[in-house]
């Protein structure tokens, strides 16, 4: 099995061994992309993940070596180790890891040529700039800047880059000046190997709102079933009683059953019917006396 | 509105809303009957679909009666 | 509904809603009166403020709208 | 409302709403039965389609629950 | 709903809603009583204020639906 | 509500809502199963179209009891 | 929706919604459990306030179409 490593220099062999240990000791092995993350932020992310997940940076070739040496289905991770990759090890499940990594992302300034992850909006309001060439620079990229009260002000809220569009150099510069940080920067999970399955990010995005809606729906369905099928539970017995009472009252009124509890409803109904007929009669020439309405 | 109630009573009982019938009902209730009003009522209702007028009125409903507890 | 119409007719005419009065009105309308329902009606109305019940009904505005047949 | 509940109990159980049955149910519940009310009840329900009347209750209610979040 | 009506009937009659009482009422109505449902009902009602549940229901008044005469 | 959820789970999974199945599900959830409630549940659902019953809106009690488990 | 029902069953029974528990419940219901869905469910519900969702349901009883789970 030492097929690949026996020619490697010692430091490389140590790296590979460390990766192999990480794989052996964790139920989840992931490959993350670290492209464009400043070193300071990497430290920050590591700190946030401490106790939950470990990040191991290594050259892609060494990652490949390690995967090959471990062998088996984990080798499939190989094809996801591209660019500036790192390994991540954890005992959490891949959905949780994905969520965790999303949560460690922070906002950063956009670099020219990057894609807007969402609509980039410049809000209206005052800026800290004194009047100067900045006004023209902002206006040039379509930001409605103006001078007001000796300060540069954005006249109205404006979307300068739509989601998915490329951010040009001029806009990137303007955004930096305005201190707008549109980019989500953090570890991007490329793939996670967990219990013999490789999970890619598209499988790991959780729509929590959909879950919430489904919980509400399920609870409604249970409530409906309990009431409609008359299966009393402490939560629904009130509604069931209410239904029975409403039905009884309705039947009582519909059938004109003169009982104290509903006689007022019956009177009300008679009164409304009388008014309906009175108005119809009035429309056909019958003069109503004042008391009628 | 005694006159209207008399008409409704007759209609519900399946009787014709005639001057005679309305007068009889009102008298039985001790009302001093005004002939002219009876005539006017009967004439007016001649062209009215009473069932329809009733059912329209009955729709009104629910929200009305406030917390009658 | 005949029985309640009779009761409201009497009430509107300022008469007491007694078994006797209700029966008289219904008979005048040609209704085959069932004593039990008359009794039940009068009993149900005993402590009820009819005017109040009527004014509550009036809250339901839909009744006012349609009319023209 | 005991009388109406008794009637609906019988109806729901697939039994006829007769004076005898209503009386039996009320007695079993310890109610001092008034014959007149039983008669009135049965008479009132005679011409009513109870299922239809019940289903009308379902139409009403929405407005009820005032979303007391 | 038979079971519920039995409970409401007992409650309205001022009796306790016990398994025994519910069973007696249902039997009087000719219902083949299932003990389990009686137990479940009584258990569910244990901590419920029936009067409150009733008065809440009363807020959503009956008689709502169109009254096609 | 555990019993209801167990029934819904089985129904959704295309399984019959039998006493045996409900009990198995509840036990797997660590619930101390009461046979009577299982029986009551299954009996109540026997003639019910579950799909219809879950989608037909039931009215919550006026002051929607908040989140009681 | 089986997975959601299983979660609600556990939650109502006062148990934690863990992978192990959800799997056990689903298996007991005869569902062919997909590990990934269980994991996704558990991860998703970690940040969902189930009690709040339930109480929301009690206020707005109308049944909406299920969102893809």
Question: How would you portray this structure in words?
Answer:
The complex is a heteroheptamer, with one copy of chain A (293 residues) and six copies of chain B (69 residues). Chain A has 293 residues and is of the alpha+beta class. Chain A has three domains: 10-105 and 186-205, 2-Layer Sandwich (Alpha-Beta Plaits); 120-181, Ribosomal protein L10, N-terminal fragment, domain II (Molybdopterin biosynthesis moea protein, domain 2), CATH 3.90.105.20; 211-292, no CATH class. Helix content of chain A is 45%, strand content 17%. Chain A has helices spanning 10-25, 39-49, 60-70, 94-103, 134-140, 169-177, 201-204, 208-228, 237-254, 260-283, and strands at residues 28-33, 53-57, 85-90, 106-108, 120-122, 125-126, 145-148, 151-154, 158-161, 183-185, 188-194, 197-199. In chain A, the strands form four sheets. A five-stranded antiparallel beta sheet of chain A has the order 2-3-1-11-12, with helices on both faces. A three-stranded antiparallel beta sheet of chain A has the order 6-8-7, with helices on one face. In chain A, strands 4-10 form a two-stranded antiparallel sheet. The longest helix of chain A is centred in the last third of the chain and has 24 residues, at 260-283. Chain A is flat, with a radius of gyration of 34 Å. The model of chain A has no long low-confidence stretch (mean pLDDT 86). With 69 residues, chain B is mainly alpha-helical. Chain B has a single domain (2-52), classed as Orthogonal Bundle (Arc Repressor Mutant, subunit A), CATH 1.10.10. Chain B contains four helices and no strands. Chain B has helices at residues 2-12, 19-28, 35-46, 50-59. In chain B, helix 1 crosses helix 2 (19-28). Chain B is globular and about 30 Å long. Chains in contact: A-B, A-C, A-D, A-E, A-F, A-G, B-C, B-D, B-E, C-D, D-E, D-F, D-G, E-F, F-G. At the A-C interface, helix 10 of A face helix 1, helix 3 and helix 4 of C.
């Amino acid at each position: 099995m030492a097929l690949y490593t026996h020619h490697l220099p010692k430091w490389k062999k140590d790296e590979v061994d460390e990766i192999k240990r990480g794989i052996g000791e964790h139920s989840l092995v992931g490959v993350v992309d670290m492209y464009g993350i400043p070193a300071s932020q990497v430290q920050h992310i590591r700190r946030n993940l401490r106790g939950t997940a470990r990040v191991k940076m290594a050259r892609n070739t060494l990652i490949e070596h390690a995967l090959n040496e471990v062998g088996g289905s984990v080798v499939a991770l190989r094809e996801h180790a591209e660019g500036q990759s790192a390994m991540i090890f954890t005992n959490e499940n891949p959905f949780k890891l994905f969520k965790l990594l999303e949560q460690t992302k922070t906002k950063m300034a956009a670099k020219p040529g990057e894609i807007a992850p969402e609509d980039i909006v410049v809000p209206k309001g005052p800026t800290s700039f004194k009047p100067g060439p900045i006004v023209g620079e902002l206006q040039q990229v379509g930001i409605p800047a103006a001078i007001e009260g000796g300060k540069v002000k954005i006249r109205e809220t404006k979307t300068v880059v739509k989601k998915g569009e490329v951010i040009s150099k001029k806009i990137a510069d303007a955004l930096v000046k305005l201190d707008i940080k549109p980019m989500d920067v953090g570890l991007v999970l490329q793939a996670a190997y967990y219990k013999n399955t490789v999970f890619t990010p598209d499988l790991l995005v959780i729509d929590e709102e959909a879950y919430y809606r489904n919980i509400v729906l399920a609870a409604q369905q249970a409530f409906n079933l309990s009431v409609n099928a008359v299966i009393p539970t402490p939560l629904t017995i009130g509604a069931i009683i209410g239904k029975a009472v409403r039905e009884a009252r309705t039947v009582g009124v519909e059938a004109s059953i003169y009982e104290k509890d509903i006689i007022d409803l019956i009177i009300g109904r008679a009164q409304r019917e009388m008014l309906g007929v009175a108005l119809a009669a009035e429309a056909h020439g019958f003069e109503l006396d004042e008391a009628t309405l | 509105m005694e006159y209207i109630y008399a008409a409704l009573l007759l209609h519900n009982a399946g009787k014709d809303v005639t001057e005679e019938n309305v007068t009889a009902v009102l008298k039985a209730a001790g009302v001093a009957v005004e002939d002219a009003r009876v005539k006017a009522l009967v004439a007016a209702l001649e062209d009215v679909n009473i069932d329809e007028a009733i059912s329209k009125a009955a729709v009104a409903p629910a929200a009305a009666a406030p917390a009658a507890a």
